């Protein structure tokens, strides 16, 4: 007779995601995971595997629920530079105010922590970067189409630059940078691209 789970794996995964988002894989002990999820170790291992497997699943969940929808919205917007401004304004807002203020981005946190040494994590981070860069490039191509870009600006190169600005916003917000400073940096960067 199969064993019946007496917990919701999705709720446990969401709690693990929050823990890893705040503290990283290295900063969260297995006891922290047990406490955060409310599961005992045997249920945790039976459902998710070891801590590293749980971290990978939580990172995938974060990217699927938080990063990818924002990238799709940016790519589908079609307004060019105003869409990029709105993307960054939304990014700064969620990083500097509300429930997740000061947490940064789970993907950027993984770049800065020891998590990126794992090949599977590295592949997820590389794919996240590709999706961010492609969404920015699509928005910049729309900006070019609308005559919003300076003649010297190549959308592909500018997309890479803006992706790095996004990483900087995430890292600096985690260390307490205020929203006005971050938004001013974004505005100044976009002004360099504009026609």
The low-confidence runs, each spanning 5 or more residues with pLDDT under 50, are none
Helix/strand order, N-terminal first: HHHHHHHHH
The first-level CATH class of the domain at 59-193 is given as Mainly Alpha
Q: CATH superfamily of the domain at 59-193, please? A: Tetracycline Repressor, domain 2
CATH architecture of the domain at 59-193: Orthogonal Bundle
Task: Report how far apart the termini are.
Answer: 69 Å
Query: What's the total count of β strands?
Result: 0
At the fold tier of CATH, the topology name of the domain at 59-193 is Tetracycline Repressor, domain 2
- Identify the overall geometry: elongated
**Rg over alpha carbons:** 19 Å
Structural class given helices, strands, pairing?
Answer: mainly alpha
């Amino acid at each position: 007779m199969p064993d019946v789970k007496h917990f919701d794996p999705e709720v446990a995964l969401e709690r693990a995601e929050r823990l890893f988002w705040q503290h990283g894989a290295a900063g969260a002990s297995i006891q922290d995971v047990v406490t955060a999820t409310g599961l005992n170790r045997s249920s945790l291992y039976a459902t998710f595997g070891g801590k590293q497997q749980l971290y990978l699943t939580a990172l995938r969940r974060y990217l699927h629920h938080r990063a990818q929808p924002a990238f799709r919205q940016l790519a589908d917007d079609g307004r060019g530079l105003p869409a990029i401004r709105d993307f960054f304004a939304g990014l700064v807002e969620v990083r500097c105010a509300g429930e997740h203020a000061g947490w940064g981005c789970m993907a950027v946190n993984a770049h800065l922590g020891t998590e990126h040494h794992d090949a599977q994590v590295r592949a997820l981070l590389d794919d996240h970067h590709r999706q961010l860069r492609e969404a920015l490039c699509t928005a910049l191509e729309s900006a070019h189409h609308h005559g919003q870009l300076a003649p010297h600006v190549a959308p592909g190169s500018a997309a890479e630059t803006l992706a790095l600005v996004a990483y900087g916003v995430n890292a600096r917000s985690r260390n307490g940078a205020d929203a006005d400073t971050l938004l001013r940096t974004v505005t100044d960067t976009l002004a360099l691209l504009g026609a």
